[in-house]
Amino acid sequence: MSGVEKQARNPESRRAELLKKAREISTLPGVYLMKDEGGSILYVGKAKNLRNRVSSYFQAARHERLRTEMLVAGIHTFDLILTETENEALILECTLIKKHKPRFNVRLKDDKGYPYLKIDVAQAFPRIEWTRRVKRDGARYFGPFPSAWSARQTLQLLNHTFQLRDCSDNTFRHRSRPCILYQIAQCSGSCVRKIDETGYRETVAQAMSILEGRAEGLLGDLRRQMEEAALAEDYERAAHFRDQIQALEGITAVQGVLEAGSERDRDVVGIARNEIIFHAVILQVRGGKMLSVRHFDVQNSDPTQSDAEILGEVLSQYYVALEEKPDETQAGGAGLSRPSEVLLPVAPESAELEMLESSLGLKLRVAETPQDEQILGVARQNAKYSVEQNAKHGGGHGIAALEEVQEKLGLARLPHRIECFDNSNIHGEDAVASRVVFIDGAPDKNLYRRYKIKTVEGSNDFATMKEVLGRRFAALGREGDEIPDLVVVDGGKGQLSQAVAILEELQVQGVAVVGLAKARTESDFRSTEVKSSLERIFIPGRKNPVNLLPHMPAYKLLTHVRDEAHRFAITYHRNVRDKRIMGGKGRGRAK
């Protein structure tokens, strides 16, 4: 190796060269893009003075934050985009983060796991449906609700109050006489046209007005009609209106809470975190009524970052996205007005606060009154509950687990993206496979994939793995299907060697592969004691497995990845098998 090549590969030399380059760039505001040796974007940042900000990364002294030091170690070059103002730089930064998803940027991820109520307004006789997925299909979506129970409770109350149909579309089309719900006055009998389309849609419009938080007018009309019926001594009709009033009051109690003493339109931000997870909640309050709760997982947050620092990223990314595409931020295009102010749990630094207000066109402030503290408490409690549930049900493992995996397995780079594949079949029948993806130590279910095996007959694990890996790596370049840092194979040395051979045949380079074999029983017929070995982790070129203890973060992460792939494959296999045997409908979609 020549002296020039050695110097180019020396981290200190490269850092000095980058510092020299940074000291020569413009002092104007703009955006900088830090790139690795392969040209991939590691980090996108904004600056009021590009020269000062970019130069600060490459000073000789080590950075206090390990995350920043890791970023700098991976930078081989940087690009600049100049803007006229810092406000423009903020908007451009958010746009580029959303487009490129750099691994070192804090990213706001809308949590799709919360339930919504859906009304397909294109149908002649629409029904209210419960769903966890918001699609751009022209339907109206209301929510998200803080829990599945509250969504289902609201659905039942609305159906009962307005006598809306709850039967499936197929049942609705083929029914020739009304069901028992019509007979007990809990359905209007729209399936057999006991109510015409115009009357039914008027009723649906009333139900939607309740979901939009406009219940007071309807409640006033119902109270007036109840009083008129009571004066006319039509007590049965008055009782009917009374029951409707009670049901509607129950709906508004579930769907929204009154913000005492306030008629303002504002968003209220709550945050919560532990050593791994950072979660943000945005309550959308309009006219003093809480109409919606938005949940966001904050990815790539550094434990050493303050709440105020991360909150600034949350605000900029959320409101820039809202300005660009309202439909993506307001579920189903519900048409909520822009808030007059945003109530924060903690204030960013004054310069950052001023820049955010100017760029976003919003008034940002912290709590000043007991009413402010009360509604902030609601937002904070929602965020705290989400963090607790995430931790309870296997949330992220954090940067420490990734670093330990890299160290123990001797990986060339930190395994930000881990993929695991598993096969499932019974004697070769109904053969399927699964892929699960963990990003920065946390499962990303949007990237999970199911595979129905197409080219393999009988039970042939090697051929099955070859087909699945071939289909997976043929997808490189598609959105979300980036190259993984680490592939985990469910199995021991045999399965690992097969996977390595397949990737070599596919000419896939730069991807680390390990095999994770389940614990095995170790017993001696002369002893009553039965022992179990630990999970065994095999790496290419090494005869014996790597020893990790169950309490170690790396052990927990790798076994979580493997178990999740196994669960996902088994679930899909059962679904395919049941569909074949029973003729039922399968869940999910295979690739």
Name of the top-level CATH class of the largest domain: Alpha Beta
Distance between the termini: 46 Å
- Poorly predicted regions are 1-8, 254-258, 327-335, 527-532, 585-589
Biggest sheet architecture: 7 strands, mixed
CATH architecture descriptor text of the largest domain: 2-Layer Sandwich
Q: What is the radius of gyration?
A: 29 Å
Q: Could you tell me the strand content as a percent range?
A: 15-25%
User: CATH superfamily of the largest domain, please?
Assistant: UvrC, RNAse H endonuclease domain
Taken from the alpha-carbon principal axes, the silhouette is flat
Tally of domains? 4
Secondary-structure class: alpha+beta
The tally of helices reads: 19
Question: Whole-number average pLDDT?
Answer: 79
The total beta strand count reads 21
Explain this structure.
This protein is an alpha+beta fold. It folds into four domains: 3-105, 3-Layer(aba) Sandwich (GIY-YIG endonuclease); 116-255, no CATH class; 266-311 and 329-392, Nucleotidyltransferase, domain 5, CATH 3.30.420; 398-582, UvrC, RNAse H endonuclease domain (Nucleotidyltransferase, domain 5), CATH 3.30.420. It has 19 helices and 21 strands. Strands 13, 14, 15, 16, 17, 18 and 21 form a seven-stranded mixed sheet that branches. It has a six-stranded mixed sheet with strand order 4-10-9-8-11-12. Strands 2-1-3 form a three-stranded antiparallel sheet. The radius of gyration is 29 Å and the shape is flat.
Write the layout of secondary structure elements.
Elements: H1 3-9, H2 11-22, E1 30-35, E2 41-47, H3 50-57, H4 66-74, E3 77-82, H5 86-100, E4 107-110, E5 116-119, E6 128-131, E7 140-142, H6 148-162, H7 169-174, H8 180-183, H9 197-211, H10 216-231, H11 235-255, E8 266-273, E9 278-286, E10 289-299, H12 307-324, H13 326-329, E11 341-344, H14 350-360, E12 363-366, H15 370-392, H16 398-409, E13 417-426, E14 429-439, E15 442-443, E16 449-452, H17 461-473, E17 486-490, H18 493-505, E18 512-517, E19 521-523, E20 530-532, E21 536-538, H19 553-582
Parallel strand pairs: 8-11, 11-12, 13-17, 17-18
Antiparallel strand pairs: 1-2, 1-3, 4-10, 5-6, 5-7, 8-9, 9-10, 13-14, 14-15, 14-16, 18-21, 19-20
Helix pairs in contact: 2-3, 5-12, 5-14, 6-11, 10-11, 12-14, 16-19, 17-18
